[in-house]
Amino acid sequence: MQETENYLYTVGKGVLRRLLRYAKPHTRLVALGLCVLMVATLADVVGPLLMKTFIDKYLAPRHFPTGQIVFLAISYILLQWITASGNYTQMLLFQRVSQNVIQKLRVEVFTKVQHLSVSFFDRTPAGSLISRITNDTQAIEDLFTSALAPFVQNGVLTIGILISMFALNVRLALICVILIPLFLCLMTLYRKLSFRVFHLARHRLGELNASLNESLQGMYLIQAMRQQHRLIRQFSEVNNAYKRARLRNIKLNGMMLRPLVDIVYYATLILVIAFFGFRALDSVIDIGVIYAFVNYLERFFEPINTIMERLNILQQALVGSDRVFRLLDETDTAPVASNSDKQPVVEVGDIVFEDVSFSYDGIHPVLSNISFHAKPGQTVALVGHTGSGKSSIVNLLMRFYPYQSGRILVDGTPLEDFHDEELRNKMGLVLQDSTLFTGTIADNIRFGRTLDDDSVRSAAEFVQADTFIEKLPDKYDHVIRERGTTFSAGQRQLLSFARTIAGEPKVLILDEATASIDTETEEAIQSSLEKMRRGRTTIAIAHRLSTIQDADLILVLQNGRIVERGNHQELLTKGGLYHKMYLLQQGMRLEA
C-alpha cells in the first residue's frame, strides 16, 4: 500500500511537472489565456450582484428610473458578453498551446520509437505502441484543454464567489468555507482510488488495439484457415475486459463525483433557506440578498462539481502521460557507435567474426563461438535447420542486437566503432518478406535517398524488375497501397532487390531472399543476383541449397554452432549434415 502511495505521489507530482515543461515555450500564450480567463470569471461573478441591486433597489420598491435601469441592463449584458467572449478566447488560446504541445510530444515519441532496439519490438505488440502514440497523447491533450484551464477558471470563480458571499452574509459564507476541506478529502480519495482503475483501463485499451492490429495484419491467413469465429471470440474477450475496466471507472465516477457533491449542495441549500426563513420571523429580509446568495451557492457548488468531474480527465491524462513518458524513458535503444570520435568507412567489405557468442534473453545461448572470415568480393552462405542461428548472425552484423562476447570486424575495425549511417548505407539487406510502403514504385526504390529517375530505372533494370513495371499504367509512378498486396510475392521481392541495389552497398546480405519467389522467377533473377554479388561481399542465408552452390564458403550451423565449413563440393565429399540436407532436397525434387 505504501509503495502505491509513493507511486501515486510520483505520478501526481513528477509527471505533471514534466508535462508543464512542454508548455514552457508557450508561456506568453498561457499567461494571456489566464488573464482573459480571470477577466471572464470576474465578469461572471459580478452578474448576480447587479441582479441583487435591481431587485432590492428597483423591483421590490417598484421604483423604475429609466436611465438607471437601462444602465444596469446594459452593464449586465456587457458582463455576459465579456464572459462569453472571454471563455471563447481563452479556450482558443489553451487549445493552441495544447495542440503545439501534443504535436511536439507525438514527434518525440515517434522519434524515440525509431531509435529503439529490435529486441524492444520483439516483446512489445505494435498495437500497444500505437495506443500510446495516439490514445495516450490524446489524453494529455485533454489535460491542457479540459482539465488545467477549467481547474484555474473554477478556482478563480470559487474565490470570487466566496468573497461575494462574505459581502452578503458572513455566517453563511463560513459554512461554505468549512465545506472546502471536505471536498479536498473527496478529491484525494478519488485520486487514490481512480489511478489504478484508469491504469487498468489504459492497459486493456492497449491490448484491444494490439489484438485489432494483429487480426488486420493476418486477415489473409485468418480467412484461409477459417479462424474468423475464434478471432472474434478472442477479440470479444479482450473487448469485454476493457468494458469491465471502463465500467469500474464509470461506477467510481458515478459514486464519488457529482452525486456526493449534489448531496452536500442540497443539504447546504436547505440550511441556507432555513436560515433566511428563521430570520424572516424577526426581521425583514431583502429578496435580492436571498436571490444573490442562493445564486452564489449554486455557482459555488457548480465549480466544485466541475473540478470533481475534471478529476476524471486529469487522472486519465496523468495515466496516459505516465505510459508515454515510460516509452520516452525506455533505455533499450538500438546499439550505436561506441566512440563518436572515430568515423571509419566501409570500403571493401572485409568481414571477420571472432568467437562471437550471443543470447537474446541473456540466459539461453543462440550463437556460441562463431568464427569465420568473409573476404572482399566473396560469397559466404549460411545454411542449417530452423533455429540454428543463421538469422542471428545477420542481426548481429546489421547491429540490430549487441553480442555478448567475441569480436566482429569490418575492414579491420570493430563493428561498434561504426556510425549507424555509415554501416547501414554500406550494407544492403534483402529479407525473405519484402516490405513496401505507401507511395509510388519510384519512391519505394529511392526510399528516402536522393536518387534521380535514371538511377531508379537503372536499379530496376539491373534486377529485371522493369519487365513488369513498364506494363503498369503509370509505370514508375504507379501508387502502391496496403504493402503492395496487388503485386505477386516475386514482384514485391524484385522491387526490394531494386531498392537495395540502388544504394550501391559494399556488403550484400540476403536473408533467404529467394524463398518466396517461384522457381521460374528465381531462375530469371539468378543472373541479376550474380551481378549484384560481383565485387561485393555477400552473406547469404539459403534455404534452397541449389542457390548457393557457387558460394566461396558455406557455413553449416546447428544449435548455434558452426559444425561444417567449406565449398559445395568439399561439403558433399565430407558426407556430413550438408550432404544429408542436399540429398533430402534432391529427393524432394525427384519426387516432385
UniProtKB/TrEMBL annotation:
Membrane-spanning intervals of the chain: 29-49, 69-88, 143-166, 172-190, 263-281
Domain ABC transmembrane type-1: 31-316
Signal peptide, first to last residue: none
Pfam families: ABC_membrane (PF00664), ABC_tran (PF00005)
Gene3D superfamilies: ABC transporter type 1, transmembrane domain, P-loop containing nucleotide triphosphate hydrolases
Domain of life: Bacteria
Cellular compartment(s): Cell membrane
CDD domains documented for this protein: ABC_6TM_TmrA_like (cd18544), ABCC_Glucan_exporter_like (cd03254)
PANTHER family: ATP-BINDING CASSETTE SUB-FAMILY B MEMBER 10, MITOCHONDRIAL, ATP-DEPENDENT PERMEASE MDL1, MITOCHONDRIAL
Protein known as: ABC transporter transmembrane domain-containing protein
Species, as recorded: Alicyclobacillus dauci
Source species taxonomy: Bacteria, Bacillati, Bacillota, Bacilli, Bacillales
